[in-house]
Every structure is written in structure tokens, then in C-alpha cells.
Design a protein that fits this description.
By secondary structure, the protein is α/β, with parallel strands linked by helices. The radius of gyration is 19 Å and the shape is globular. α1 (38-45) packs parallel to α2, α4 runs parallel beside α7 and α7 runs parallel beside α8 (240-253). It has 12 helices and 12 strands. The relative contact order is 0.14.
Length: 359
């Protein structure tokens, strides 16, 4: 019987267990979106995970509106990432970078330009900026020329990821950001080949995946989807009709693995009554499937043992438990994180949580 603690092959990546660290925005970069040295210690502390998926990392200034989040579009950023990936590898870990374009979820005071999206819509709530939260602005709809440019930016970001020492990339197509805004009919009101039918709404995801695969290989490419519920004002009226075909398309492209973030009706970070779709997606996606959102130790063990998923990604549990892998394996108590330090600038709440034998 397969266990949560068994190794797994995730495309080209040999993971020593099936516990993944999911992306966690922490805001410890510079104002110019350059990674900082403290990030090397943070990620190295968590290298016992089978695979670390980095915090969401911007592919361009246009697409990165989170204060102090890192990017990967410049040579300076690549060079700043290199000691971070080396620190993880020196600890025996594996790490991939999550490629991020935030779409309409940015403010011009951070990016210096109007937000973009599938259609001229606005984020549903105030946005994080360097001057506190500010009201959202209406996004402009991407032109076909914009889409061509953005595909090129994904290509550069993927190439930069390998140069920075990452083991691969994850395309962020979830959580109400740009690609998700194209996938869902609640935000995609286009009438061209990128809107309307599910096949058309999947087009941008397919083109991004194809470009990344052509750049670094399918075996080093993965995707994150959030197929059910409302996430940052982004929702689909019939998610099975778009996300199951999207998963089938990604299967046909041969990506290394697919991760799903699926809240439930009692979710602690987003709630929804829309059914989870990992069952029908499992039927069409044959490579490793990773599930995420509110899994307890017992649920994670059962989900992998029963073949419902091949691995489980944990997010907030990794914030306060850098040795989460050991704590899960030995059924040790978990520490609680402090929400006030999730996005703060210092070491507190970032690299100062003790390992179990220090507790």
C-alpha cells in the first residue's frame, strides 16, 4: 500500500516523500521584487518536504502587484534566486518556482500600469499596496498582441527558472489570477477565440503550458488549478465543463503533475458548496495528482493510501512547522502560526519557528 511517506516521481523530479510544500506568499523580497538572503534559510529549513513549490513569483512587472514579492524576469532576480535553490539542494531538497501573473489583482501604484485581465472587470475587494490596502481599478482586456507578449514572458521566466537552479516550474492557473480569469465564465466575457466556449477559455492555459514545455520540457512543468468555488471574485457557473477538459488537455501535453486547491463548505481559507472535482479530473489526468486545502494528517494519509491522490500539498502548516514532514511522520504536535507575521518584513514568524527537538 502506498503511503504519504513513500517517494514519488513527479515528472523529472524524484521526491523523497509525498508531502509537498504549497506556495506561500510571504513578502520578504525587496521593493524591486528581488529575492533576499533570508529566503535561503527559510526554504532550506523546509527541505525535508518531498518538493517545495516556491511562493508565487512574478513573470513581469505588469503581473506582479504584491508588495515585496519576488520576480524572475531579470538577471538580478535570477542571481538572487541561485543561493536559495542551492541552499535547498544542499539540504537534500527539491524546489520548483510558481510562475505568477496576477491579472486584475494588482494596483497601478505597485506595477506602474493599469491592471489587465480577460475582460474589463475589477477585483472584488481592496488590494495590497505599499501604502496599505487600496480600492481596485478596472482592468483592461488583453489584446491578442498582449497575449503574444505574455507568452514570451512565460518563456523567459521558465528559462530563467532553470538558470536560477530550480528543478522545474509550476504555472499558476488558480486563485483568481490571470489564467484563472480566462478559465471562468464569471470573469471571461470575451467574444473572440479566448472566450465563450470552455474550449476557448482553456486556450490561454494551453498556450502558456505549450510555451513553457517547449522551453524546459513537459517533465519539468506542472500546473495549479482551483476548480471549485469563488476565489477572489472569480467563479464559474459550471466548473466541471471547463476544468475537466483543461485537465485532459494537460494530460495530453504530458506535464509532470497537476495540483488542485479545493476548498470545501467548512474551509478555513475560503468556503464553497461547489463540489470538489478531483474525482472526475482523476479519470482524465493520468500523471501524479496532488491535492491541497485543509488536509489533516489522517486525511492526507488516507487520501494517498486510497489512491484518490498521489501526494498532498500543505501550506499554512509549513509556516510554523519547518519540520512538518517529521511531525507528520511521527505524529508529533503541530505549532500554530501567527497571522500577523505572514506578510511582515522581518525574521519574526519567518525563520524563527523552532524544530521539534528545540520546542
Amino acid at each position: 500500500m502506498t503511503t504519504l511517506f513513500d517517494p514519488i516521481q513527479l515528472g523529472a523530479i524524484h521526491a523523497k516523500n509525498r508531502i509537498l510544500m504549497s506556495p506561500l506568499t510571504r513578502g520578504r523580497g525587496t521593493r524591486d521584487h528581488v529575492p533576499t538572503p533570508v529566503m535561503a534559510e527559510y526554504y532550506a529549513q523546509r527541505a525535508s518536504a518531498g518538493l517545495i513549490i516556491s511562493e508565487a513569483t512574478g513573470i513581469s512587472r505588469e503581473g506582479l502587484g504584491w508588495p515585496y514579492a519576488p520576480g524572475i524576469w531579470s538577471q538580478e532576480q535570477v542571481e538572487a534566486w541561485q543561493p536559495i535553490t542551492k541552499a535547498v539542494h544542499d539540504k537534500g531538497g527539491k524546489i520548483i518556482v510558481q510562475l505568477w501573473h496576477m491579472g486584475r489583482m494588482v494596483h497601478s501604484s505597485v506595477t506602474g500600469q493599469q491592471p489587465v485581465s480577460s475582460s474589463p472587470t475589477s477585483a472584488p475587494a481592496p488590494l495590497h499596496t505599499y501604502d496599505g490596502k487600496q480600492d481596485p481599478e478596472q482592468a483592461r482586456a488583453l489584446t491578442k498582441a498582449d497575449i503574444t507578449r505574455i507568452l514570451g514572458e512565460y518563456e523567459v521566466a521558465a528559462r530563467n527558472a532553470i538558470a536560477a537552479g530550480f528543478d522545474g516550474v509550476q504555472i499558476h492557473a488558480a486563485n483568481g489570477y490571470l489564467i484563472d480569469e480566462f478559465l471562468r465564465d464569471g470573469t471571461n466575457h470575451r467574444e473572440d477565440e479566448y472566450g465563450g466556449s470552455p474550449e476557448n477559455r482553456i486556450r490561454l492555459l494551453r498556450e502558456v503550458a505549450e510555451r513553457v514545455i517547449a522551453t524546459i520540457g513537459a517533465e519539468r512543468t506542472s500546473v495549479r488549478l482551483s476548480p471549485n468555488g469563488d476565489t477572489q471574485g472569480c467563479i464559474d457557473s459550471a466548473p466541471e465543463t471547463v476544468f475537466v477538459p483543461a485537465a485532459r488537455m494537460l494530460n495530453d501535453l504530458g506535464i509532470g503533475f497537476l495540483e488542485l486547491r479545493e476548498p470545501g463548505p467548512d474551509g478555513t481559507f475560503g468556503k464553497t458548496d461547489q463540489p470538489k472535482l478531483h474525482g472526475p479530473i482523476r479519470e482524465v489526468f493520468r500523471n501524479p495528482l496532488v491535492l491541497n486545502q485543509d488536509y489533516t494528517r489522517e486525511e492526507a494519509i488516507e487520501t494517498v493510501a486510497g489512491g484518490v491522490a498521489d501526494a498532498i500539498a500543505f501550506g499554512r502548516k509549513f509556516i510554523a512547522n519547518p519540520d512538518l514532514t517529521r511531525r507528520l511522520a511521527e505524529d508529533l504536535p503541530l505549532q500554530s502560526d501567527d497571522i500577523k507575521t505572514w506578510y511582515s518584513r522581518g525574521d519574526e514568524g519567518y525563520i524563527d519557528y523552532p524544530f521539534y527537538n528545540e520546542s
